[in-house]
Specification:
Layout: E1 6-7, E2 10-11, H1 17-24, H2 26-32, H3 39-50, H4 56-69, H5 77-91, E3 95-99, H6 105-113, E4 119-124, H7 127-140, E5 146-150, H8 158-167, E6 174-179, H9 186-196, E7 199-207, H10 210-214, H11 216-224, E8 230-238, E9 246-254
Parallel strand pairs: 3-4, 3-6, 4-5, 6-7
Antiparallel strand pairs: 1-2, 7-9, 8-9
InterPro entries: SAM-dependent_MTases_sf, SAM_O-MeTrfase
GO molecular function: methyltransferase activity
Enzyme class: transferase
Length: 257
Amino acid sequence: MRNLTEIGGRRLPFLRWSAVRMALGMRHLTTHWQVGDGREEALAQHVVRTAREGDLDDVIRTIDAFSYERSLMMHVGDEKGEILDAAIRRAAPRRVLELGTYCGYSALRMIRAMPAGGHVYSVEFLAANADIARRIWAHAGIGDRVTVVVGSLGDGGATMAALEDEHGFAAGGVDLVFLDHDKNEYLPDLERIGARGWLRPGAIVVADNVRVPGAPQYRAHMRERGGAGWATVEHETHVEYQSLIRDLVLESEYQPG
């Protein structure tokens, strides 16, 4: 099926009707954080029905196949996922903060690459997405290693207080942050995290979709701070599940004072 959306060896799943529906529903997507046609729930049901229970690798493989062959999804995907995997292996984090759970795919990849005993705390705006992610994590057998917190860091402090009071977030306690939520909030949320002092020296921040749909203020900030708080590598890659539209993933190491 995938070869129907390839030209000259380039993967073009955005030619499928599911990608057209996503584009037409962009306002709904950026307001409600679901495409609006039920594909997120369909993914969860498909994973539970077809992936081997307790097999993390097979759950990831099933999600990738669904995203290529049935409905285009907006999680990090396989190509950019390898960049995230490599960052996780370098950081060897015990505590990860993810902003933007969606259907839980990136957390699956991070847990697979993390040391035993590492934990992901994922903040998700939409309760329905959080429920989908929990079901997928449970099926993959990692439900005890991922905690989803419904909210946002920009909600006036409630979610950040919950992370501290209920989940033990404290100064220097976060080893890696993965940003994959509202692109306009990348820089404000990084500043909120910085104000709390959560990042340890040498912590890594990975930011997806910096070119498409784009986080220009965040990118400019990291460029301006090169050598003065942050050391950043820009990874040239592609928008998820295709190989024509280019994207950027930024990987930044925190180097205070």
